[in-house]
Structures are given as C-alpha cells and as structure tokens.
Design goal:
- The chain is of the alpha/beta class.
- It has three domains: 157 residues, Rossmann fold (3-Layer(aba) Sandwich); 167 residues, Dihydrodipicolinate Reductase, domain 2, CATH 3.30.360; 83 residues, ACT domain (Alpha-Beta Plaits, 2-Layer Sandwich).
- Helix content is 35%, strand content 26%.
- The chain contains 14 helices and 17 strands.
- The strands form two sheets. Strands 7, 8, 9, 10, 11, 12, 13, 14, 15, 16 and 17 form an eleven-stranded mixed β-sheet that branches. A six-stranded parallel β-sheet has the order 3-2-1-4-5-6, with helices on both faces.
- Strand 5, helix 5 and strand 6 form a beta-alpha-beta unit.
- Helix 1 packs across helix 12, helix 4 runs parallel beside helix 5 and helix 7 packs across helix 8.
- The longest helix is centred in the C-terminal third of the chain and has 21 residues.
- The N and C termini lie far apart (57 Å).
- The structure holds NADPH dihydro-nicotinamide-adenine-dinucleotide phosphate and L-homoserine.
- NADPH dihydro-nicotinamide-adenine-dinucleotide phosphate binds next to helix 1.
Length: 439
Amino acid sequence: MTSATSETAQPIRVALLGCGTVGTQIVRLLTEQADDLTARVGGGIELVGIAVRRPNKHRDVPAELLTTDAAALVTRPDVDVVVEVIGGIEPTRGWLLAALNAGKSVVTANKALLAEHAGELFDAAGRSGADLYFEASVAGAIPLLRPLRESLAGDRITRVMGIVNGTTNFILSAMDETGAGYSETLDEASRLGYAEADPTADVDGFDAASKAAILASLAFHTRVTAGDVHREGISAVTSADFAAARALGRTIKLLAICERVRDADGQESVAVRVHPAMIPRSHPLAGVNGAFNAVFVEAEAAGQLMFYGPGAGGAPTASAVLGDLVAVARNRVVGGRGPRESAYADLPVRPIAQASTRYHISLDVADRAGVLAAVAAEFAQHEVSIAAVRQEGRANDASLVIVTHSAPDAALRSTVDKVAGLPFVHEVVSVMRVEGEES
Ligand code: NDP
Ligand code: HSE
C-alpha cells in the first residue's frame, strides 16, 4: 500500500496502531488520496505496518501489513511516523514513548493518554527531536488545537467553553427532542462509532475531562491533567431536569469550561470543570445537536471565536489525524519540527469549591405558609443570592424552582444540604448549574 512516490523525497513510512472505527478510515483516506497527499507533502506516504489485536478480523487490509506486535512495530528501522488510534493509557503509553525515544514522530487521537502523560511524551519528543501531534484527541474533525497552539500563540486566552463529547451530546439532544430513553440512545451512539470502547468514559464525563485538560494546558501554557478537572457526567440527568429546563426556556448540555481566573490579590490560576448545565435556548451552544461539538474561545485581542463541527465518528476523526500526518510528513521532508510543549506559565489549578456559577434548584415542598420564607432564609444564611423563584401548586404540595445569582460551589452545596433537611422539603428534585447568562 504505497502512495505515488515523489521524485524529490523518500516516502514517509507510517506505522498505524489500531484499525477500528478511526483506523479503518485512516487506511481508506491514505489509499484514496495517495496522489494528493504526495503532492501536498512533497513525498509519498507509505503505510508499512498495522498493529491490531485480532488480525483475522481485518480482511480489507493487506495481510502482510498486519501484526499483533505493536511494541516491535513502533521501533522498526523502516518506520518514520507512528499513528496511534488504539486508545487507553497502557500499554499505549509505553509504545509511544519507545517510538518517540527512537526518533519516530507520533500522531495520536488518544485524549486519555495525553490528559495524563502529555508532559512525559513531550519530554521524550523534545529529547529526540521528534514531533507530537494530537489534533484528533479533542473535538473530532474540528481544527481546534492547532488554532490554540499556533494561530492564537500571540494572544492571551482567557476562557475556553464548549461541548466536547459527541456521545453525551447525542444522548442529551435525543432526550430533549424526542424524550428518548438514556440507554437506547447510548446503544445507538456506540453503533455509530461515537462512544469510547468503554462508554462509561463518555457518560461519566471522563472523556470530556481529558479533553478539557488538553484544552486548558494549551490555552493557559500550564500542565493540566485529567485529575485536575472537576468532573460530573450525565448519568444523573433525568427527563424531569429537561422538563424543568424547558419551562424556563433552557436546555441541558454537558459543558467543558476552562478559565483563567484572577484573585483579589492579583494571583492568577486555572479552573477547569466538566458538568451538565442548563443554558438558554437562545445560546449558540443550545443548537449544537447530535454528535456535533462546538467550542468558544475567548482571547483578549481576538475576542470571541467559535469552532463547530462533527466531534466524533470514524471519518471525521480520520480527517484530523490525516491533517496531523501531513504536517509531520512535511516537517520530515523539509527537516523542520512542529511546535513543542508550552507550559512556561505553570499556573496553579483552583479547586471547584472556589468556582462560582449560577444554579437552578428544583424542590418538591409542602404547600403552606412560611415554606418559601424558610427556604429563602437558608440561602440568605449561606450568602447565596436568589435571582428568581417560581412556584407551582400540586394538591397539598408545590414545585419550587429557585435560580441563584453566581455563588461559590461550596456555599451552594451547604445550602442545598440544609434545605434538604427542612421538614417540609419532600425532595431535592434537581440541582444544576446555569451557564450562558449574566450572573
Ligand atoms: P476502536 O475500539 O474502534 O478500535 C481500536 C483498535 O485498536 C482496534 O483495531 C483494535 O484491534 C486495536 N487494539 C486494541 N488493543 C490492541 C492491542 N493491545 N494491540 C494492538 N491493537 C489493539 O476505537 P476507535 O477507533 O473508536 O478509537 C481509537 C482512538 O481514537 C481512541 O483513543 C479514541 O478515544 C480516539 N478517538 C475516537 C473517536 C471516535 O469517534 N471513535 C473520535 C476521536 C478520538 P482489533 O480491531 O483487532 O480488535
Ligand atoms: N467518544 C468520543 C465522543 C469520541 O463521543 O466525543 C470523540 O472524541
């Protein structure tokens, strides 16, 4: 499987690790676009090996390329670039470190690995002079990391916020639009190739947290790992939450929010969180449905930028991988290198308890005199300011919805704990952050 070779340069020899949803599309594009890629790179791109788990399953690729020995493939002398689309942390981390230590450039879509070990991988790449590219690891086909790493390198980014997980957006969109059940929609997302091998990585927010760590690291020139990210998934989001959101002209999205924060004493830090949030239906993110992703980037000079497109799936992700492969191959042909890690700012990461957001709290209470006043008193006690209250009677009970002004997470949690213990509060039906509105 060799592309048309250039008269001017040796072909760039590529080892592919993984040939599943994304890998099969990479093989297809490499084959179908061989001549164009050669012209763009200034030399051919030759696939010299493909590591998989079960070679018998892969009847569409030449058998002589297949191997189950990824460890041997990544350091073979006839390999220039390793493209990794297997996923997971081990043994992939060891293979990519071995490749980088041997001077092979690496292109990967593996956000779980990068969100934990980017520093180690960049260090290895730095020592050997190899490239490390990972555009496909965040937001599928959308060119987002290269703008952060390169186009905005002269600006100062203050905030990155968006929808970065296609599977959960697919599920939440279906719950909102059709009232579809959670598990059947997740099955459909897996069938369409959006979900991770273990889909709990999607629904519990791990995948989005990894992506948020990568985005924050690039945006704020600081090493942020997945463990630094406050994470809440969507498994607790119910149809009652959607009904409550709808009643107030809102919908629910799983958001990743990365912020540069300045304290009163001028000390800067980074706050990174992933959680479901209610947003107004008029907000541009409310119209991002299915497996699409969208990310807002705010920078001091550029202002607000929005990136939108397919966030998951084999072909869209392969597009981003191929873009990186062309960049790496061009660097090899001309003898240059891509951008290295930029972590000079080394800002501290702020705990979630100090983060301030607006909240929507829905309570099931007894409908009698003094209830609203007593609930409001708990909010006042914890210095959580109420922005709006809505009450609807139901026989002897009432549904009480409270929307707060911006309040620290810790104060809100203490307030809700106290309110839940009041004798006339039957149930705390839902507590959800509100984003995209004035605080
Ligand atoms: P799949 O599960 O579809 O494919 C994984 C591939 O890795 C399979 O070909 C499998 O081999 C191979 N593999 C697994 N373990 C080993 C092993 N020990 N040795 C050799 N090969 C192995 O995953 P995807 O293609 O969906 O995802 C791959 C990567 O891309 C992940 O990091 C994912 O997070 C990322 N990604 C995926 C997106 C998507 O929409 N799917 C979007 C963006 C990023 P075999 O086929 O023989 O079992
Ligand atoms: N499982 C991921 C998602 C794949 O649903 O967004 C794309 O990174």
